[in-house]
């Protein structure tokens, strides 16, 4: 089978980045060096975007600035924290920022993940916006901004691409120092309504800083609309043109757009085609079961305990499905220093135990928890051979698991159950089975409906989903973002010449 997805970036983007600086700024790094039994080893992070950006950076021979969180990171780097990567065939520079424990506590756990993360996901009750954490966030943003400025110097041609909510302040800092560069930011998570964001004591500072970007990208038009509402409320001096997402502020125009992040469909197809299923199926005793799958980072936004409650209700209502339907939970630990994540872990453990104790038998467990690390070919085999995917976040910027499941469904037999509060619902909602994760009975009934769908309808739905996911993949998304950034530069040139 030939791979789906766009083969490569467009000529325009490829040409543009063959002779200009591309600087990516992200919290997580593309390669980490760690000690393992006294030896230094290199690992690559799991994130799809990080993996997808790596080949673009290799071609552009750019610079990637990120937190050096590996314990051997600075052993292999020069005095400035720079190391050439990929380690096997170096072509670009990874410039590592060293953070102290106090920095990590205030900037990463504190302001990024105790304040902005819950707020952007609409969870006001969980948010703690401590001014002391904000001070660390500011200082760390300053360090990253300095690293950008050192790197590009007076290079007006450079394109700086900030990733995510860890860098709410760096764009304004960089703009103050190097006026000419094109600044772009992709906000990976939702942007909430003003009524929620106004809880943040630094709302105005963050919104005004993001307006130092030339291009600001969200996943969906809803987040763009929410952000523009926040601009109008927090920065009344700004002029917002909703017809084209242009915001004029401080002698500068920011274009605010929605491009929904895609997955590397070609790579997922390759991996799902490998024959990793029989071994995995045997190891977890899944032979002849109907499988419902959940794959999540263990985060309270993902709706995992709520999903397990709904499964419990389903088994209560449908005794005929006991002994057959098996829910496989693949969970990865996350941000474990934060209390809300520790509580979640306990809640998930207790919920799984409760359901297994209540319904399990000698030869069947309703919930199987996969704790071991699965190599990618096994993970995508699991996606491929699952009958249902339960993607039930309470709120999610996009949710790439929904798209990965679709991309791995080579036989088009599975059904996607998708929360209406995931960004992915905007694109995939019509052919998924939509659920409201807060409605226990509604999710239980949706599982029943999904299992009862006739084969022909399942195939039709999945075929349409696959067309969407395969055609607007990670490369197509990246091409859109980088082309839009080049357009912003073009618009700026026009404005300058109009005023010359
Ligand atoms: O979805 C937002 C995000 O920050 C991603 O960019 C990242 O891969 C994921 O959450 C994991 O979070 P962390 O880097 O805090 O482990």
Write a compact overview of the structure shown:
By secondary structure, the chain is of the alpha/beta class. The chain has helices spanning about 10-15, 50-60, 100-120, 130-150, 170-175, 195, 205-210, 220-235, 265-275, 275-285, 305-315, 340-360, 375-385, 400-410, 425-430, 440-450, 455-470, 475-500; strands at about 20-25, 30-35, 40-45, 65, 80-85, 90-95, 160-165, 180-185, 215-220, 240, 245-250, 250-260, 290-295, 325-330, 365-370, 390, 415-420, 435.
Textual characterization of the structure:
- The protein is α/β, with parallel strands linked by helices and 500 residues long.
- It folds into two domains: 268 residues, Glycogen Phosphorylase B (Rossmann fold); 206 residues, Glycogen Phosphorylase B (Rossmann fold), CATH 3.40.50.2000.
- Helices cover 45% and strands 18% of the residues.
- It contains 18 helices and 18 strands.
- The strands form three sheets. Strands 5-6-4-1-7-8-9-12-11-10 form a ten-stranded mixed β-sheet, sandwiched between helices. The chain has a six-stranded parallel β-sheet with strand order 15-14-13-16-17-18, with helices on both faces. A two-stranded antiparallel ribbon has the order 2-3.
- Helix 3 crosses helix 4 and helix 4 packs parallel to helix 5.
- The longest helix is centred in the last third of the chain and has 26 residues.
- The chain is globular, with a radius of gyration of 23 Å.
- The structure holds 6-O-phosphono-beta-D-fructofuranose.
- The site of 6-O-phosphono-beta-D-fructofuranose has 10 residues, from loops.
């Amino acid at each position: 089978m030939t791979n789906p997805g766009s083969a490569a970036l467009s000529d325009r983007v490829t040409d543009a980045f063959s002779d200009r600086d591309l600087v990516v700024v992200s919290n997580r790094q593309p390669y980490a060096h760690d000690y393992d039994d006294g030896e230094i080893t290199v690992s690559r992070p799991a994130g799809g975007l990080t993996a997808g950006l790596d080949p673009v950076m290799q071609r552009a021979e750019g610079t990637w600035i990120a937190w050096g969180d590996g314990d051997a990171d600075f052993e292999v780097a020069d005095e400035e924290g720079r190391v050439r990567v990929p380690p096997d065939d170096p072509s670009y520079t990874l410039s590592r920022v060293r953070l102290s424990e106090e920095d990590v506590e205030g900037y990463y756990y504190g302001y990024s993940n105790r304040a902005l993360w819950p707020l952007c996901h609409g969870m006001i009750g969980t948010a703690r916006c401590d001014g002391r954490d904000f001070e660390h966030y500011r200082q760390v943003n300053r360090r990253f901004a300095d690293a950008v400025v050192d790197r590009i110097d007076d290079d007006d041609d450079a394109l700086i691409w900030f990733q995510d909510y860890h860098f709410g302040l760096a764009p304004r800092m960089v703009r103050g120092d190097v006026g000419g560069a094109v600044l772009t930011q992709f906000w990976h998570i939702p942007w909430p309504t003003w009524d929620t964001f106004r809880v943040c004591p630094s709302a105005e500072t963050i919104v005004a800083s993001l307006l130092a970007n030339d291009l600001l990208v969200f996943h969906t038009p809803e987040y763009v609309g929410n952000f523009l509402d926040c601009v109008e409320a927090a920065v009344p001096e700004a002029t917002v043109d909703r017809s084209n997402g242009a915001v004029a502020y401080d002698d500068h125009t920011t274009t605010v757009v929605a491009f929904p992040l895609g997955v590397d469909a070609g790579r997922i197809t390759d991996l799902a085609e490998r024959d990793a299923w029989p071994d995995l199926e045997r190891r977890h005793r899944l032979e002849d079961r109907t499988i419902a799958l959940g794959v999540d980072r263990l985060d309270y936004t993902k709706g995992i305990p709520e999903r397990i409650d709904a499964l419990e209700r389903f088994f209560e209502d449908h005794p005929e499905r006991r002994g057959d339907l098996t829910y496989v939970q693949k969970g990865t630990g996350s941000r474990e220093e934060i209390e809300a994540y520790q509580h979640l872990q306990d809640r998930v453990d207790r919920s799984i135990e409760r359901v297994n104790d209540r319904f399990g038998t000698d030869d069947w467990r309703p919930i199987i928890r996969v704790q071991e690390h699965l190599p990618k070919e096994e993970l995508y085999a699991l996606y491929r051979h699952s009958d249902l995917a339960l993607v039930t976040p309470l709120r999610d910027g996009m949710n790439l698991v929904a798209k990965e499941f679709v991309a791995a469904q080579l036989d088009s037999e599975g059904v996607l159950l998708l929360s209406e509060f995931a960004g992915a619902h905007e694109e995939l909602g019509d052919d998924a089975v939509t659920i409201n994760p807060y409605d226990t009975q509604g999710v239980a009934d949706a599982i029943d409906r999904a299992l009862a769908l006739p084969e022909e309808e399942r195939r039709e739905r999945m075929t349409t989903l696959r067309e969407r996911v395969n055609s607007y993949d990670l490369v197509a998304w990246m091409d859109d973002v980088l082309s839009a950034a080049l357009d912003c530069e073009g618009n700026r040139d026009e404005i300058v010449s109009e005023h010359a």
